[in-house]
Write a structure and sequence with these properties.
- The protein has two domains: 145 residues, Sandwich (Immunoglobulin-like); 363 residues, Glycosidases (TIM Barrel, Alpha-Beta Barrel), CATH 3.20.20.80.
- The chain is built from eleven helices and 27 strands.
- By secondary structure, it is α/β, with parallel strands linked by helices.
- 26% of the residues lie in helices and 27% in strands.
- Helix 7 links the parallel strand 10 and strand 11.
- The chain starts with a helix and ends with a strand.
- The structure holds alpha-L-arabinofuranose.
- The site of alpha-L-arabinofuranose has 10 residues, from loops.
Length: 517
Amino acid sequence: MKTIIAAIATGLFFAASAFAATATTNSLVIHADAGTTIISKNIYGQFSEHLGHCIYEGIWVGTNSEIPNTRGIRNDVVAALKKIKVPVVRWPGGCFADEYHWMDGVGPSEKRPAIINTTWGGVVENNHFGTHEFMDFCEQVGCDPCICGNVGSGSVQEMMQWVEYMTSAADSPMANLRRQNGRDKPWKVPFFAVGNESWGCGGNMRPEFYADNFKRYNTFIKNYPGNKVYRVACGASDGDYNWTEVLMANAAKQMNGISLHHYSLPIPTWSGSKGSATQFGEDQWFSTLQAAVSIEGMIDKHSAIMDKYDPKKKIGLIVDEWGAWYDVDPGSNPGFLRQQNTLRDALVAGCNLNIFNNHAERVKMANIAQAINVLQSMILTDKEKMIVTPTYYVFEMFTPHQDATLLPSELKCEDYSFGGKKIPGVSVSASVDPSGAIHVTLCNLNPTRAANINCELQGGTRKNVSGRVLTSSDMTTHNTFEQPDNLKPEPFNDVQLAGNGFTTTLPPKSVVALELK
Ligand code: AHR
């Protein structure tokens, strides 16, 4: 008997040490007393475009729908978005913004013209969801609107009148039209973007031409009493540093923010297959995360250019489209960009959000593409059914960072290598909230090795630590309408206070959120 127990004990010992041997070793210093920068809550923003089923079916079901709604807007979706404290939503596009004429979307809905959404699937856009409906949606969610205006195919007058329509309290033509359409009080429009992807679907412009157009359109965006517009210039795609250089050199004085778009594709081609959202191996796990973390280098380089013209960092870098982009779900409309969302997407979200937090001095807003049923969404709907995705849960786990003070951190981590390439194996950011609680969000990008973390909290200790983890044994795990709870955060106990900090072991392929009080 003793021999059997000894054999079992020896086996357990070897199993445990084998696990320990496979874990990576990483050290982290968090400067608990050195926070100066606020992480803008707007980093946790969303993007909703007239594309596929983001607006229609995702948000808007109409007032006659049997799906529970408030003035045509889905109650389940609003409730889910409120839970993750969505601070701001960008609308109506994307590429759609530069073919959207806002007057088509106001007034009695039966009188609104039906148009063709030429960019996204060639489907009929009946304009039943317009300015009033979007503003109602924002009020129900409790978030700010970020309106993207039409530079590509719209006039200066049209943009000027839209701003007047939304924000003026005067006895003026557009404010009176708004009143006639049922809204007396002006709305607040704190953010207005002057065109989208003007280097591409928004007009194929040169940066010099766009810079002039930005200044021209922007001149006529008025700050009506009670509303101050934060003006976002169309910025670069990925590593187009010349675009940023030209915009900053020519229009820095007129802008409050400049955008950046970066998508993470497992197979980086825009024409051929981008890779499946759910059927992939470690090669595409790695390449997607490599694409995701590459945004840090882009932010550094765009910021360095901005620093030349704006050393005090008054102009925000607005990452108003980001996320993973795969082949559409089999059988779905290729123009609708509907894709499933797995544990891989949770890691993409966690790494991106950590990077944005760590660059909070410059990154003042980010809008993941997109909120519902499109690309890396928070929510998927199928008629009356609704599920939330792993990405949704990451946003939920990261909510304590919103408007908290960023704590500088230094991470020395082992690389995650695959196929001769390597990326940092761990991602982290930390913040302290007004009550003094410290929140640390960590991602272990390695799908096969746990990550041991030794963390020192410099300049501050805490008495309790608790955590939650999002992980699974399989990197393709995702939620479905049949099994909506396949992947959701669980309590995390593999963390202990140690010295003036803590030690923890992150499971392979996991997102962990810790709270230290
Ligand atoms: O998010 C989908 C599309 O990607 C947007 O409409 C466009 O701005 C970008 O190219």
